[in-house]
Amino acid sequence: MSTPSITRLADYRAPEFLIEKTYLSFDLNEAYTDVSSKLSIVSNPQSGKTSDLFLHGEQLELLSLAINDQPLSSADYQISREVLTIYNVPEQFVLHCKTRIYPDKNTALEGLYRSSGMYCTQCEAEGFRKITYYLDRPDVMSEFETVIIADDNAFSVMLSNGNCLSDSVVDGKRIVHWHDPFKKPSYLFALVAGNLDCLEDSFITQSGRNVLLQIYTEAKDSDKCDFAMQSLKKAMRWDEEVYGREYDLDRFMIVAVDDFNMGAMENKGLNIFNTSCVLAHPKSTTDAAFQRVESVVAHEYFHNWSGNRVTCRDWFQLSLKEGLTVYRDEEFSADMNSRAVKRIDGASFMRNVQFVEDAGPMAHPVRPDSYLEISNFYTMTIYEKGAEVVRMLANILGPENYRKGTDLYFERFDGQAVTCDDFVACMEETSGKDLHQFRLWYSQAGTPQLHISDSYDAERQQYHLHVRQHTPETPGQPLKQALHIPLKITLYGEQGAQDLIIEGKNYGEETVLDICREQQTIVFDNITEKPSPSLLREFSAPVKVDYDYQLQQLQQLILLDSDGFCRWDAVQNLMGRVLHEAIEGDSKEPTQDALIQSLKRLLQNFSAMDMGLLACLLDLPSEHYVASRYEKADPAAISQARTHLQHQLALALEPELLACYQALAGEVAGLSAEAMAARSLRNRALGYLMCIDKAIYRGLAEQQFFHAENMTDQFAALKAMVHAEHAHIEAQHALQAFYQQWQNDALVVNMWLQVQATKPWGDVLRDVRALLEHPAFDKRNPNKLRAVIAAFANQNFSQFHQLSGEAYQFLAEQIADIDQRNPQIAARLLTPLTHWHQFIAPYGQLMKAALDSLSQHELSKDVYEVLSKSLVES
Ligand code: BES
Ligand code: ZN
């Protein structure tokens, strides 16, 4: 392919034309769809005068073009692969354009496409240009009217954004007319037509308006919408109570589709969801999946304000809506469930995935400077780090000032397309705080490291904390500046948390230190003994902390810290040390003993603890996280050390694990926080016990599998059997039974595929190849690709990193094939190979060889961008 062009933030210009009204009509035929658009266009008073109009458009068949009802001749315009240029247009006019598109042939799932027979759209970020010629950029906001025409009786529902104005039949054609009164950018446009069932409910807003709530699915899934509906109502209430945000239309619709590149999409008044993020039923859905549904429903709903009413000026500002909305959905979930567990999950995700991205060739700031393909920038950095940046702002400002800041933001910019800086400016204005240095979080990539050391002066009763910050170099950003890092701390002494007295001021037991310089020392007075510092409480900033804890300090934090994240972090630290010593061939008894003793004490007291938290404390650090601690990692050594530690822990804690497992048998059913916590602890215990080769534990797992009342327990037992090397017979048996039972439920079948693709032993690559041929697999469906190929490459560390490099080649071949149909998914699948420089020889070289072989193919822009960035020698 010719080298694609780079889009740069620095080149941003206001649009030359605006589209005041957009009138669309879709004629849905079997073989093609004709789209007619009437656009009321005016030149933008804010920008310089120009007379040529450039419209985006891709893969469109142009049928006709007219300005103010005058047909244009071929001399009046020019069409290239991505742009329609119309010469010499007036200052204000109506452009009438007819195009033909082929939704049935659309395998990229961007624009208008078909999923299980139904028509649906995905326009973010730049899919609308595959529907019709348009100014497909978020700072062009327009009022939309949409007419959908199809054979009468072809579809039971024909939906678009906003309110339905009319629904009639004329000459055998059904014509449905929609109007969205709120101006929006084209990426929020949606259309759905299909034969769907609908679950209805209603919600009374804080100002007393009645909103009709509808969830549309295929008939076979109509019994799986209750939970999403309840979640939606909770989210609507929460946004009123916590942010003062009320819903604005009379109707809110969700449609579930099987084929979807992402999780869900916030189209105005008509959210479109991947079935995996909306359908849920106690028999067939795990607790983790229930929580995912709750948070995705909330996330897309929250976008109605943070994204739709106030949107992004350009795609470099993506985190303005995504980071803010992720922060909002995380806080919602924390309020609905266990806050500690939610925070640990968030922190662990940052470490395992975002920190890895930040250390690799695709590292970029929360507000990137440039891109080739915007679809590649829906990243962990934009989303998760972006959410952490908003969280830091909320913590620096405090709840009242933060709320004043968001109120001002929503009020001032309602109906506008704005920037990350506009958001920060509101925070600055309402709080009076200087956020000048803080803004660097948006422009500087890389994970800051805090190197912390301390000293205690017994005579003066002073404790000194020395903090040095350093952000490693990232591609294109060799030099880094010091950031404003909020470091939340507590100091624990023998008697518990100490009062923190700094420069004569008493801050109580917990405070946030503003770390702003490259090096600084904080002096605490009246400290009567050398304390154990509890650092980065609640994961107060997305940074790495290194502080050389003594074993006994870690044990103290594990047992006594009042912050769940810090307890978890202390266990992770201890586990990390044991693994490191094993990898270096230098295992030390005291470290392992300290770990075992701590976990034993926790387990002996499990009934007095937050069981969900305890379940997290039992988790080993992921292989990815361990690998990221090394300059060059040896994947085999890491997997081996980790498996060994798991086995050692199981043996050392066997009686406690068994007691815990048995005590929690027949625990409360249902989806209460306590019930979910008990299940997660019990299934963690089962996972460990199944590392021990004993018939009794295989019996427990089988028993649980065949008698489970819910999917959480059934699937946990299945996974424990399939992933235990010595339970081969039981596992085969259970896998068959599971498929037999669930073969007609696509989402459960995906779990069945995934549990096999992530099995840590045996010839899994051969199994994965076989799964690709299984009737349950479908290479066009993104969920299936994720369940098999992405799961194998991202969640099966030991099997993916084979000495032969065969798995790397396999992935490259799959990507080349998938790229022909779905570039977005293909580019995402490439991520694991991009980290080749992290691994020792021959792994790193073999990964790079797989990338090299991929570069021999004809590639999409999406894959080309990731590939070329990851092949740059550093
Ligand atoms: N706006 C996105 C969906 C999207 C992203 C569409 C990129 C097209 C291209 C949506 O709001 C979103 O962020 N969805 C997430 C789930 C969410 C809970 C973080 C997703 O789809 O993974
Ligand atoms: Zn989003």
Tell me how many strands there are.
Answer: 34
- Gyration radius (Cα, Å) is 28 Å
Can you tell me the overall shape?
globular
Q: Identify low-pLDDT runs.
A: none
Q: How much of the polypeptide forms β-strand, as a percent range?
A: 15-25%
* Strand order, sheet with most strands: 6-5-9-3-2-12-15-14
Helix/strand layout:
Blueprint: E1 7-8, E2 17-28, E3 33-43, E4 53-56, E5 61-67, E6 70-71, E7 77-79, E8 83-86, E9 92-101, E10 111-115, E11 118-122, E12 142-151, E13 157-160, E14 163-170, E15 173-184, E16 191-194, E17 197-204, E18 210-217, H1 226-243, E19 251-257, E20 264-265, E21 270-274, H2 287-302, E22 311-312, H3 318-336, H4 339-358, E23 370-371, H5 380-397, H6 399-412, E24 417-418, H7 420-431, H8 440-443, E25 449-457, E26 462-470, E27 485-493, E28 496-497, E29 501-502, E30 505-506, E31 511-515, E32 519-525, E33 532-535, E34 544-547, H9 551-560, H10 564-583, H11 589-604, H12 611-617, H13 623-628, H14 635-652, H15 654-663, H16 673-689, H17 695-707, H18 711-723, H19 728-742, H20 746-757, H21 764-773, H22 782-795, H23 797-800, H24 806-821, H25 823-829, H26 831-834, H27 843-854, H28 861-871
Bound molecules: ligand BES and zinc ion (ZN).
Description:
- There is one protein chain.
- The protein is α+β, with helices and mostly antiparallel strands and 874 residues long.
- The protein contains 28 helices and 34 strands.
- An 8-stranded mixed sheet has the order 6-5-9-3-2-12-15-14, with no helix packed on it. It has a 6-stranded mixed sheet with strand order 30-29-32-26-25-34, with no helix packed on it.
- Strand 14 (163-170) and strand 15 (173-184) form a beta hairpin.
- The longest helix is centred in the middle third of the chain and has 20 residues, at 339-358.
- The protein starts with 6 loop residues before the first strand and ends with a helix.
- The mean pLDDT is 97.
- Zinc ion is lined by residues 299, 303, 322, 325.
- Zinc ion binds next to helix 3.
